[in-house]
Amino acid sequence: MDAGYRQKYSPRYRDPVLQTGACLFAIQGHQLSHQKFLHRPVEMSKTELGDVTPHNIKQLKRLNEVVFPVSYNDKFYKDVLEAGELAKLAYYNDIVVGAVCCRIDTSENSRRLYIMTLGCLYPYRRLGIGSKMLEHVLNYVQQDGNFDSIFLHVQVNNEGAIDFYKKFGFEIVETKEHYYKRIEPTDAHVLQKTLRPKITNGVKNGDEKKDNEK
Ligand code: ACO
């Protein structure tokens, strides 16, 4: 998380209309007239998701640089361009303020959806934008019907994100020491939402406990 950015834009900009101006400035480097935004009614604000394309991929890169403490390489962005519904930009009043990027993981004998990044610019948090992106992902896996689980890594001190995911039924299933190389703390939790129980030797994981209890 960029401390300078947070300090500059966070507590003073409680009004989403002013926040819109602040972030447009941050992302696109435009000088803004507050006057233009002060007259726009808050009720008109709306969130929409849009595709990632070669035309807006730089906005995704810039957003990820601001939101996440780790950087992503060219292959990440090349793959994102091929990801279809698994990569989306979030627009708030037509301005890019968030993004989600996922990929399909077929390791460990399962088909899982891995959320690589899901983030929203600081002034736009707690407005339901993260939920909108995660609901898109949850709808995707539900419609596909062939995923075992959804998972992601999160830094152990990222309590806000952990609370956010728990609200959607994710659980901490593992903690990996020294998962991150260049940021502190280096440990990561694996958060997972199980969609269908794993079958081991013909026994569903969830059923094992019931049998032992008898
Ligand atoms: N503290 C406690 N609970 C929270 C927090 C928080 N900081 N943020 C969200 N929640 C919970 C609340 O229950 C909230 O409902 P409420 O506002 O009615 O109380 C609910 O989640 C939904 O919140 P949203 O407004 O939909 O979430 P938001 O748009 O703020 O996005 C996110 C949440 C994505 C975690 C945001 O804080 C963010 O971008 N953080 C920086 C990037 C990041 O850490 N991403 C996640 C980890 S990395 C990864 O996902 C792979």
Q: What does this protein look like?
A:
- It comes from Timema tahoe.
- This is N-terminal methionine N(alpha)-acetyltransferase NatE.
- One of its GO terms (cellular component) is NatA complex.
- Keywords: Acyltransferase, Cytoplasm, Transferase.
- The protein is of the alpha+beta class and 214 residues long.
- The protein has a domain at 47-194: Aminopeptidase (3-Layer(aba) Sandwich), CATH 3.40.630.
- 36% of the residues lie in helices and 26% in strands.
- The chain starts with a helix and ends with a helix.
- Residues 1-26, 28-41 and 206-214 have low confidence and may be disordered.
- The site of acetyl coenzyme *A has 21 residues, from strand 4, helix 6, strand 5 and helix 7.
Concise synopsis of the structure shown:
The protein has 214 residues and is α+β, with helices and mostly antiparallel strands. It has helices spanning 3-9, 16-28, 34-38, 57-67, 74-81, 129-144, 159-167, 205-213; strands at residues 47-51, 87-92, 95-105, 112-120, 149-155, 171-176, 188-194, 199-200, 203-204. The relative contact order is 0.11.
Note the main attributes of this structure:
single chain; 214 residues; Aminopeptidase; two-stranded antiparallel sheet; 8 helices; 9 strands; 36% helix; binds acetyl coenzyme *A; cytoplasm; transferase; GNAT_dom; EC 2.3.1.258
Q: Provide the gyration radius in Å.
A: 19 Å
Helix content: 25-40%
Widest β-sheet, arrangement of strands: 1-2-3-4-5-7-6
User: What's the name of the CATH homologous superfamily of the domain at 47-194?
Assistant: Gcn5-related N-acetyltransferase (GNAT)
Helix segment tally: 8
Series of secondary-structure elements, N-terminal to C-terminal: HHHEHHEEEHEHEEEEH
CATH structural architecture of the domain at 47-194: 3-Layer(aba) Sandwich
Structural class from helices and strands?
Answer: alpha+beta
| Chain-averaged pLDDT | 82
The profile of the biggest β sheet is: 7 strands, mixed
Q: Could you name the CATH topology of the domain at 47-194?
A: Aminopeptidase
**Contiguous runs where pLDDT drops below 50 for at least 5 residues:** 1-26, 28-41, 206-214
Instruction: Please state the overall shape, judged from the principal axes of the Cα atoms.
Output: globular
CATH top level of the domain at 47-194 is Alpha Beta
Count of distinct strands: 9
Keywords: Acyltransferase, Cytoplasm, Transferase
GO molecular function: protein N-terminal-methionine acetyltransferase activity
InterPro entries: Acyl_CoA_acyltransferase (IPR016181), GNAT_dom (IPR000182), N-term/lysine_N-AcTrnsfr (IPR051556)
Subcellular location: Cytoplasm
